[in-house]
Design a protein that fits this description.
The complex is a heterodimer of chains A (696) and B (249). Chain A is of the alpha/beta class and 696 residues long. Helix content of chain A is 26%, strand content 24%. The chains are: A alpha/beta (696), B alpha+beta (249).
């Protein structure tokens, strides 16, 4: 069943530690092709077609595609289109991608898992015929390239050895690495670049637009506008010996030629100004900064500077205009900030950006500028042939690279979101810009749900405290479908030692844990979304609708699973005892605030719900007064018993929500703006109380 | 949850094995002439030597009239791990493993046959790559057989872990990479022939629902190991007789 040949792979890390790992090579791995009759496939293990239809004009015979790592890393947007099928993803590639970029890795897995795309993962690293050992002195990347080539020629030989009568599929290796391509050709492997392949694809308009324009950003020294970035090794040593500082770059919202880098060890963020000072950093990037000598320190500009409307070509001007205004008047200027310049990029934090296309003025041109919705992001140059259509749309664009000789970064079109001004398109922009996961729930998540007609099983009722006989009700805003808590209160017989009346008060929270088991797909998806997002016209659920607005919604007159906390309270709102348990409840009424208030106010109503609400109302007022007496933010009031219980049971992950007053620094920009509005300010130092702006 | 990707979507572990496959086991009996019995065992990259002295007269203080006293010493060579170990034996971990070895091996030895005597078992780890205890037990069993000490059955040890992928699946014979991934490691020493368990140890918390799965996979591992050890003993005897006879005659 398995060959017992063992090989050792050795790696070194950090303080020279030799790691020896076993590596088993197998002879039972499948090639996944329907054209193969030598691998012991089961019927559901065929992924690749018997006669794949070629969509590329360059290769008109049936073929499978093998991708190089850099193709996957850079052209994931192209791969996500439904165009390319019958693709072999080698394990070497999969692992390199995983190592270099987890988000692209996830996207690749998504493609592989989708059946109709016919992507097959071939475990070449553990196949006895395709394993490649690293030669002494060989670079890891060279070894991987060699492994990819070997797998490609193995596939070609494997498929031809079947001696089928019909034409068997060929193998086409797609790689952007010229060296790799040359070596592959020497081995007799058919190969081409992504660009050549995609540009010759028939029948998928717009695919070319998604090609990533990836250039080695530092190699274009001809007509360079920007100084070159340092190499990672130079940055590393520079940061180590204190010559450079590493920090996160934050672009200014008002001035596209200004930004700051928050650097550890400096009280103020380092000011970065001008094209050269910022040197192609984009908001969010981790950059290496060199601090200028103190004589060259400047102050942040007061002017608002926006990028010009039309494309000025690859020139950098505006610099002078900005720098004039920021020269410090004299050295005592209080606003002088440590100033620096970006010398290298440690890590790009590029994501996809929403915005609009500004079509080039020349008709028929394919290069256009894209203006992101986020003002901190520079404009992007993209190439598209559909500019007429896209000009009226909100579009999503990915950044690819920023060569030295280009004023703007290069990117490519990802997809259109909808008409400019259209409500759903604008909503989509908001969600994407704030990174809100809003895709529909996946099949795996939906599979975790109970059936639509689910009812509470009898054995579950036996395990829980049965509170169905209690008169429980919920009070929520009108139209609320996700009722997550409900209350009850009733007078108890007997009094305290002081002769006070006692009440039983219960808070019932929908027991979501019954439906969302730990580590299921549903749990992970919910953890990723972590909250329900409410937009003006729609809601993005954290858990699927069936749970949030049905099974985990404590609707009136329906039996629901809940987690209950029940207190015994005297009429002065002192807690006498408390207990926590899982329960089954049946809410008597789901009321709106208005209905509840009317019920309380209608003196004639003497039913259980009305009484219960009145008790709650009375106790709530007393509790609130107590809390006010203690100072509103202090938490030493009796209703923290839930928090106490949590802290006791889960000391490592108990959290308490707190709303501290926002720091005054949050208001400096606002104050600056306000000062400009009321130009000669009567009181030079207005000190606003931050508390009303409770955004903490 | 740690150790999420110990099993790839193609069902292979990091080293290319499937979930239910043992590492390659190679072993040899009678590697030394001085001790009464000895064995060398490789389980993947874990390499272990075991030597057995005895049964011989027990020192007065230890002597027991009920049965033989089993004395175990487990030590790891200073060069056995990636970073050089300073103390080959006597640290907490080695002492604990020595005790566990004794427990597992005493369960297999017919102790009642040798009252007032003692058997010394030395286990030396030459290279450690996870599952050193398991390899130690398996090597000691072979060494005991080589020494001609009567056993109730082979005592074999095997570890198992858990891969929390889309579908939780137990992994048998855990190497160091998987141990270090932070998942649970269940070590079982059992006498597969009699079906009894001599020792059970678990490194982390594991939900009861999954315990049976992990346990049965470790026990299956023990059974597979027994087959391999049995073949090694038979091969050794088949070739050993002729050679030794010519030497002794």
């Amino acid at each position: 069943m398995w060959t017992t040949k063992t090989f050792l792979t050795k790696t070194k890390r950090g303080n020279i530690l030799k790691i020896v790992r076993e590596h088993y090579l197998r002879d039972d791995l499948l090639c996944g092709s329907s054209a193969c009759n030598s691998c012991p496939h089961k019927d559901d293990e065929y992924v690749l077609d018997l006669k794949p239809v070629s969509i590329c004009a360059l290769f008109e015979y049936p073929h499978y595609i093998i991708l190089d790592t850099n193709v996957v890393l850079h052209q994931i947007d192209v791969l996500e289109e439904d165009a390319l099928t019958n693709v072999i993803i080698l394990q070497t590639v999969l692992e390199e991608v995983k190592h270099q970029n987890t988000s692209i890795y996830q996207r690749l897995l998504e493609i592989v898992n989708s059946k109709k795309r016919k992507f097959y993962c071939f475990v070449n690293e553990h196949h006895k015929d395709t394993y490649v050992e690293r030669k002494p002195g060989e670079k890891q990347s060279d070894r991987n390239d060699r492994a990819i080539r070997l797998a490609a020629s193995w596939y070609a030989a494997h498929l031809s050895s079947n001696k089928l009568e019909h034409q068997f599929p060929q193998i086409v290796l797609i790689t952007d690495d010229q060296n790799n391509r040359q070596l592959a050709q020497e081995d007799g492997i058919v190969c081409c670049t992504v660009q050549d392949y995609i540009e010759n694809v028939n029948g998928f308009a717009g695919l070319v637009d998604k090609l990533s324009k990836n250039v080695m950003p530092e190699s274009c020294s001809k007509d360079a506008l920007y100084p070159a970035h340092l190499t990672p090794a130079q940055i590393h040593t520079g940061v180590k010996n204190g010559q450079y500082h590493s920090g996160t770059f934050h672009a200014s919202r008002d001035n596209f030629l200004e930004g700051t880098a928050s650097v550890h060890g400096f009280e103020k963020a380092i000011l970065l100004q001008g094209h050269i000072g910022i040197n192609r950093a984009v908001d969010g990037d981790q950059v290496a900064v060199e601090i200028l000598p103190e004589a060259e320190w400047r102050r942040p500009s007061d002017i608002v500077l926006e990028d010009k409307a039309d494309d000025p070509g690859d020139k950098l001007d505006e610099e002078a205009e900005l720098l004039k205004t920021v020269k410090p008047v004299d050295n005592k200027d209080g606003e002088i900030t440590p100033t620096g310049k970006v010398v290298g990029i440690i890590k790009r934090k590029w994501r996809q950006y929403c915005g609009i296309l500004m079509p080039s003025k020349i008709p028929g041109a394919t290069r256009h500028l894209f203006t992101p919705a986020e003002k901190r992001i520079p404009r992007v140059r993209i190439e598209t042939r559909q500019s007429e259509i896209l000009a009226s749309q909100k579009i999503l664009v990915a950044l690819d690279s920023w060569p030295r000789n280009s004023r703007y970064p290069l990117g490519h079109f990802v997809r259109a979101l909808g008409q400019i001004g259209d409500k759903s398109a604008e909503n989509e922009v908001i969600l994407l810009e704030h990174d809100v996961p809003h895709a529909r729930f996946s099949e795996a998540v939906l599979a975790c749900l109970p059936p639509n007609d689910w009812t509470i099983p009898d054995e579950e009722i036996k395990k829980r405290v049965d509170l169905r006989s209690l008169c429980i009700c919920s009070v929520d805003p009108p139209g609320c479908t996700d009722i997550d808590d409900a209350l009850h209160a009733r007078p108890l017989e007997g009094t305290t030692d002081d002769g006070l009346e006692t009440f039983e008060v219960g808070v019932h929270i929908a027991d979501v844990t019954y439906f969302v088991r730990p580590d299921t797909a549903l749990d992970k998806e919910a953890a990723c979304r972590s909250t329900t997002v409410y937009l003006v016209d729609r809601r993005i659920d954290m858990v699927p609708d069936l749970l949030s607005s049905n099974l985990c919604s404590l609707r009136g007159n329906e039996e629901r699973l809940a987690f209950s906390c029940v207190w015994e309270i005297d009429e002065n709102a002192n807690v006498l005892s408390k207990k926590f348990h899982k329960s089954v409840i049946k809410s008597a009424a789901a009321m709106t605030y208005e209905e509840a208030q009317i019920t309380i106010d209608t003196k004639s109503r003497r039913d259980e719900i009305a009484q219960s609400l009145r008790i709650l109302n009375k106790l709530a007022k007393k509790l609130k007064r107590k809390r006010m007496d203690n100072g509103a933010l202090s938490l030493s009031s009796p209703e923290i018993s839930v928090a106490e219980k949590l802290a006791e049971e889960f000391p490592q992950c108990a959290l308490l929500r707190r709303h501290p007053a926002p720091p005054p620094a949050n208001f400096t920009t606002f104050l600056k703006a306000a000062k400009q509005q009321v130009a000669p300010s009567p009181s030079p130092s207005p000190s606003p109380s931050p508390s009303p702006w409770g955004n903490g | 949850m740690p150790a999420a990707d110990l099993l790839s979507s193609q069902g292979l572990r990091l080293d290319g094995r499937r979930a239910n496959e043992l590492r390659r086991i190679r072993c040899k009996l009678g590697v030394f002439t001085q001790p009464d019995g000895s064995a060398y065992l490789e389980q993947g990259n874990t390499k272990v030597l075991a030597a057995v002295y005895g049964p011989h007269q027990a020192s007065k203080s230890k002597s027991s009239s009920d049965g033989v006293v089993v004395n175990c010493q487990y030590s790891m060579a200073t060069f056995s791990t990636g970073e050089r170990k300073n103390r080959p034996r006597g640290d907490r971990k080695s002492q604990e493993i020595s005790l566990h070895l004794r427990q597992a091996l005493t369960a297999a030895i017919k102790t009642e046959l040798y009252p007032r005597s003692q058997i010394d078992i030395y286990v030396e780890v030459l290279q450690a790559d996870g599952g050193t205890f398991c390899a130690g037990v398996n090597a000691a069993t072979l060494a005991l057989i080589d020494a001609g000490i009567p056993l109730r059955a082979y005592v074999c040890a095997c570890s198992a872990s858990m891969a929390w992928g889309a579908r939780p699946q137990p992994l048998v014979d855990v190497p160091h990479v998987e141990e270090a991934a932070g998942g649970v490691v269940l070590t079982v020493a059992s006498l597969p022939n009699t079906g009894s368990t001599a020792l059970l140890e678990m490194s982390h918390k594991l939900h009861m629902d999954y315990f049976k799965m992990v346990f049965s996979s470790a026990v299956q591992g023990c059974r597979d190991i027994e087959v391999i050890l049995d073949r090694a003993v038979r091969d050794h005897l088949a070739e050993g007789w002729t050679e030794q006879d010519t030497v002794t005659v």
